[in-house]
Amino acid sequence: MRSWRFKPRHITETIAKFFMLLSFLVVAVSLLSILWTVLSKGLPALSWEMISQTPKGGYYLGKEGGILNAILGSLFLAGGGTLVALVVSLPISLFLETYVMKTRWARYVRLTMDILWGIPSIVYGAFAFTLMLAIGMRASLLGGIIVLALLEIPIMTRAMDEVIRLMPEELSQASLAVGASKLETALKVTVRQMLPGIVTATLLAFGRGIGDAASVLYTAGYTDRIPTSLSSPTASLPLAIFFQLGTPYPEVQQRAYASALILTLIVLIVSLGSRLVSARLGRFINR
Amino acid sequence: MNTNSHIEIRNLNTFYDRQQPALINVNLAIPRNQVTVIMGPSGCGKTTLLKTFNRFLELTDGTRITGEVLIDGINIYDPNQDVTEIRKKTGLLAQRPYMLPMSIYENVAYGLRIHGIKRGKELDQAVRHYLEIAGLWDEVKDRLHAPATRLSIGQQQRVCLARGLAVEPEILLGDEPTSALDPISAAHIESRLLELKKDYTIVVVTHTLRQAKRLADYVIFMYLGEVVEAGPARQVFEQPQQERTRGYLSGQF
Fold first, then answer.
1. CA of B152 to nearest chain A CA: how many angstroms apart?
2. Do the chains contact at A180 and B84, CB–CB below 8 Å?
3. How much is the ipTM here?
4. What is the pLDDT of residues A250-269, one digit of tens each?
5. How many domains does chain B have?
6. Chain B: nearest CA to A192, how far in angstroms?
7. Do residues B59 and B232 lie in contact, with contact meaning Cβ atoms separated by under 8 Å?
8. Is residue B139 part of a domain?
9. Which domain holds residue B10?
10. What is the 8-class DSSP label of residue A55?
11. Residue A80 in contact with residue A97, Cβ under 8 Å?
12. CB neighbour list of residue B96: distance below 8 Å, 6 or more residues apart
C-alpha cells in the first residue's frame, strides 16, 4: 500500500503549494532588497541639509544644498493631482453604483477606465505636452497637477468602484425605506460605509502619482527653486532621483538614493496617517 | 373603495427579468389599523407582494409591474407620485436589521434630517419618543452616541423600528422581521407590533404559521404567486375555504 502522500492528487497539491510559496517569496525578497538598497545607500547621505535646503550652485557636482525644491514640488504636484482626481473619481464611482449599476453604460465606463489605466504615463505626459504647446502654456505646477490627475483618475475610479460595489444592498435599502433619495443615500450612507476603501483607493492613486517621473517631465519641468505659483515650473522627487543618479559623481548618486528614501517615507507617512484617520472615522461602520 | 381598507391592490402582476411572472393577478384590500399577515411556502411571492407596497421591487433590475396599488385611494405607481413620499409613508422592518454607519441617535434621527427637521431640541425629543415606542430607550439612553452596530441584533431590530417610525409612516411593513432574532427579541418585536396596530396599519410576511396565528387579524395565503385565500384571521384559520389553504395549515407543504 502506497502512502497517501504519493497519490497524484496530493502530489499536485504539494507542487501547487510550492509554487504559491515561491511566488510569495519572489515578491517578499524583491520588496526587502529594494528597501535594503534604498536604506543602505541612502541613509548615509541623508541629512537635515538635504531636506531643508534647495540646491545651491554646484549641488549636482557634490557641493552643498538639498532637494527641498523636489520634496515640496512632489507634494504639491501629487497632492494637487490627487485632490483633482478625487473630485472627479468619487462622483463617477458613486454614479456607477447608484444609478447605472449593471447597465451597458456602466460596462463602457469601466472598460474605458481599464484602458486608460493601462496607458503608459509617458503617453499622458506627451499628450498633455502637445496640448499645452497648442494653448501656449509652459511647463508649470498646474500642468503637472492636471496630467497627474489624468493619470490618477482611472486608478482611483476603478479602485473605488470595486469597493463601492461591495456596499450591501440592504444597507442602501435601509436608507431608501425612510424616504431618502438615491443621492442622499449615496452621500450620507454609501460614502461613510465605504470610507476605508475610498481612502485606500485615494492612497493608491497618490502613490502612483507621486512616484511618476515620465508624466511630469515635460508638463511640470524641473527647477532648483520652490514653486511660488501655479504657473511656476516645479521639481519632483522622481526626476531629482533621475538627474542625480545620472551624474558621474558617487556622492551625488548617493544623494539619489537618499531622495528615493525620502520619497518612500512620504508615501509611508501619508498612507499610515490616512489609515489612522479612516479607522477613527470608521468606528460606526456596519461590518 | 372600502373605507376600512388602507391598501388596495388591483389586478397586480409583477415579472422578474423577461416573462416569468412573480405575482399573478392579485386583488386585495388590506384593512386599516390591523395586523395583516402574508403567509405561504417559500418562493410563493410573499416578499414580492410586500415590496410592491413601498416600491422596492423596482430597485431590482428588470422588474416589471402592471396593475395598481392604492394607498389611501392614491395609486402609488402613478408616474406623478414622488417615490420618496411613498416610502416615507411606509416604514420597513427587513429580515435582518441593518444599521446605518452612524450612532444610535443618528440612526433614528436620519429620516427626520432627510425630511428637513434639523432643530436639535426637536430631534432630541423625537429620538427619545421613538426609542421609547420601540422599547429600547432604557437600554440605550446612556450611549446614544455610540455606534449602532455595537448593539445586539435584537436591539438593532428595535433601532430599525424606531428609525422607521420616526418619519411618521401610516403603514408598517415587516419582511419576516423576527427570522434572524433570538426567541426573546422576537417576542419583543411581536409585542411591539401588536401594540402599534392601534396607530398603524401593519403588514407582516412570515413563514411560520405559529407567528401568523399570534399576530394576525387578517390573513393572506399565497401559493405560487397567487393569492389563494384572504380574510379575517379567524375565518381563514378555522374555516379555510380552499383546499390548498387547508393543506398548508395542516402542514402538508
1. 13
2. yes
3. 0.90
4. 888 999 999 999 999 999 99
5. 1
6. 6
7. no
8. no
9. 5-100+171-249
10. P
11. no
12. A170, B153, B180
